[in-house]
Amino acid sequence: MRLVTTIGVAASALLTLAGASAASAQAPIRPDQVAFRALYKELVETNTEYSNGDCTLAAHRMGARLKAAGYPDEDIVYITPPDHPREGGMVAVLHGTDPNAKAILLLAHIDVVEARRSDWTRDPFTLVEENGYFYGRGANDDKAMASINIDTLVRLRQEGFRPRRSIKAAITCGEETDEAFNGASDLVRNHRDLIDAAFALNEGAGGRLDAQGNRIALNIQAGEKVYQDFTLTSLSPGGHSSRPVRGDNAIAQLAIAVAKVDAHQFPVQLNEVTRAYFAAMGKLAPGATGEALTTISANPNDAAALAIVTRDPSWNGILRTTCVPTLIKGGHAENALPQHAEANINCRIFPADSIDYVKQSLIEVIGDTKITVTTAGGIGLNPPVPPLSDQIMDPVRRAAAQVFPGIPIVPAMTTGATDGRYLNIGGIPTYGLTGIFNDPDGDGVHGLNERIRVQSLYDGRDFLYAVVKDASMAK
Length: 475
Hints:
globular; Alpha-Beta Plaits; alpha/beta; Aminopeptidase
């Protein structure tokens, strides 16, 4: 998953909920957690990078865990495209007793962002437990949830639990890069029968801790921004670098255009989920910050409140479409005027804004006909926002009361992009829900020394297990 935060980094350092239990105090490990840790370790230590990893191997290793727990071969289905032999996935099912009740789907991706060993303090593909944290590439995103989902099926099978609704788990590849085969999209398009469900649980939201390790809020994600890249291109005739032509340098022209894009702010706006999010956060934040959040939830154009709220980059991202330069390249020789320069502009588009509107806005902001703006990659998907109905919220409330008593549940829209967009467009309401509480700095997800609190992982495991077991018995 591209980096997602639902409670701001700076803001979370300000929020300390009275009475919130400290997630930093790790409880003694239970026997069932020992078995889970071994499963999690195996998955993290299976390299699933796009460049040299193997999702197919990881999927088969998780399938072997299910088979050892008693699942028959026919209930474990591997899907590996012939032209992408290392990008396979797996779907497994614990059958329900009511054939007329739609299933619950647990979705997680097992591919990870590239990790260069020389940059890391520890080997990214060796699970290291240190000072209350697990370290490793994918230890958080998204092998934590993938491990929990597979482990949940193992636990339920070993207990002899018979759900009313079937419980399905899908682990897929291709979420972290557009270059890879996307398993979630393929399941929706070509294997719908394997994953059809009343709703799905996915990454996209967990919980946030304050700077002292206290839990602030448990998020449930409904809806996400649209991911879209644009390419800015600048061309010029070039020539000898000793004969510069003022105003006709491809790199200089592009630099001006990029600076204009970086400075541009799209209009603020709210939808049902983000309005509820800011209203809930207004009750948790202290002083002027809380007042500003409450004001924003009622009037997103209040200038004084905006000045406070948008200081936090995560909150700013929830409020509007954002576009930022992420890659730039140009020129062909040290002693030649550049003939070509190009920049990637990565946009996270508010669901109400169209891609064409954003593209036209970039053209107008740049205001230079020498710069072309083109859509890069595939056209971003704009999925519907699934309803936060009692079908999903009741099991969440009951499990939260059991595992995270007193912690408010806050709806959120993710500012990143997840595989849930394929399922939502395909008619399977998909919610971001992990129950994993993360540090305000993002725990190194997509960056160096990715980590997750040990206790947060174990608590998230218990929370999701309780949600799934409860929801699987609902009428």
